[in-house]
Amino acid sequence: MKIAVLPGDGIGPETTRVALSVLAVAGDVYGFSAEVTEHPFGGNAIDSHNDPFPAETRAALPLADAVLKGAVGGPKWDTGEIRPEQGLLALRAELKVFANIRPIRQWTKKIASPLRDELVDGLDMIIIRELTGGLYFGPKELTTETGMDTCRYSVDEVERVARYAFELARTRRGKVCSVDKQNVLSSSKLWRNVVVERVAPDYPDVELSHQLVDSMAMKLIEQPLAYDVIVTENMFGDILSDLAASVSGGIGLAPSSSLGSARPGLYEAIHGSAPDIAGKGIANPTAMILTVAMMLRDLDQTEAANAIEAAAIHCLEHGPTTPDLGGSATTDEVGAAIAALIQNREVTA
Ligand code: NAD
Ligand code: IPM
Ligand code: MN
Predict the structure, then answer these.
(1) Catalytic residue among 30, 136, 153, 203
(2) From the candidate CATH numbers 3.40.640.10, 3.40.718.10, 3.40.47.10, 3.40.50.410, the one assigned to the domain spanning 1-96+262-349
(3) pLDDT tens digits, 89-116
């Protein structure tokens, strides 16, 4: 398999490097070889190419079976005319990855949630965030007097991501919650109409509910166990998934995949470049390692994916862990522990 790696900025390269070492060990043990190529992307690419998404990186993507991306951005590029984040939006658009799959799980009871135990016992939901439309991609304008972003959705954009959610729900507990703000926004009125009229009738076996985004933030704190598959607009999904990741035990544990109708998919942790801890060697690599597991599952390396996930969970339960989880291990030590568990086949899923 060919993997195009975009290491990114801040803790991006630190966590990606460790995730790649876990991928290599899994390849040895489970009999596949990952041909990894690295490409400039994000803030470092602004420095080297004056472009967060250089042409040479763009050209490499169609050759890959999957794109693995570390977080991008940081204070160095916050005030420049071109931002790393623009490159990220261009990348998602280029790959046409309209469905961002963000699993939110209680990986183990050993990891504390900020919520009471009984509120998160067995937590297992998937947030599907629409990723190539909405407020991020509508017409924009910035003058010295006004700033404007436009939230625009077409029927097709809503329908394809909603169908993805219903299909996924069928493989799980059969529940979809669609989140919008249809009491105010036209884009949300369209969203809800499409979900109700064009998609739900094809899935009578799936239980559909709707929640306005503001009260959804409340519900995710008060009763996160009520949810199975959540599907929502780009920016709502961005915000709710950080909240939900925290509820599940921390942003350092939350992986994601971004999928379109063809390969390559894009695989990225949901956390950012964490400028406050970058360079210290203490970032939690678990989110990126679980992201590699999602990637391998999509590339039909199910056994390897299961082993990586089981090893990561074992490490959360028995240590070592990084300081965000109360431990004192480094990024490398956690990666090495997970790799050793896989190498020695000490855990099986
Ligand atoms: P952040 O996710 O980078 O950090 C928020 C907090 O979580 C920080 O305290 C950080 O130390 C902590 N944290 C995040 N990941 C961690 C990990 N793996 N281990 C331990 N602690 C971790 O969010 P932010 O500070 O709002 O954003 C920083 C930069 O990252 C910004 O430039 C933003 O645009 C960018 N960003 C990039 C991506 C991406 O590339 N996918 C995602 C989100 C944010
Ligand atoms: C994420 C990030 C990005 C987003 C930023 C860095 C553009 O927050 O992947 O969640 O908002 O999509
Ligand atoms: Mn985000």
Answers:
(1) 136
(2) 3.40.718.10
(3) 999 999 999 999 999 999 999 999 999 9
User: Running DSSP on this structure, what letter comes out for residue 249?
Assistant: T
- Residues 47, 78, 132, CA angle at the centre, nearest 5°? 90
The verdict on whether 51 is a catalytic residue reads no
Work out the mean pLDDT of the chain and round it to a whole number.
97
**DSSP class of 319:** S
Let me know if 242 is a catalytic residue.
Answer: yes
Strands (E), the chain: 2-6, 35-38, 66-69, 99-105, 124-130, 140-142, 147-149, 175-180, 207-212, 229-232, 257-259, 265-268
**Start and end residues for every CATH 3.40.718.10 domain found in the chain:** 1-96+262-349, 99-254
Please tell me whether the overall predicted TM-score, pTM, comes out greater than 0.90 for this model: yes
Homologous superfamily assigned to 99-254: Isopropylmalate Dehydrogenase (3.40.718.10)
C-alpha span between 175 and 161 (Å, rounded): 15
- 271 CA distance to ligand 1 middle (Å): 5
Q: Which amino acid is present at 230? A: I
How far is the C-alpha of 319 from the C-alpha of 111, rounded, in Å?
11
85 pocket-lining for ligand 2 (C-beta < 6 Å): yes
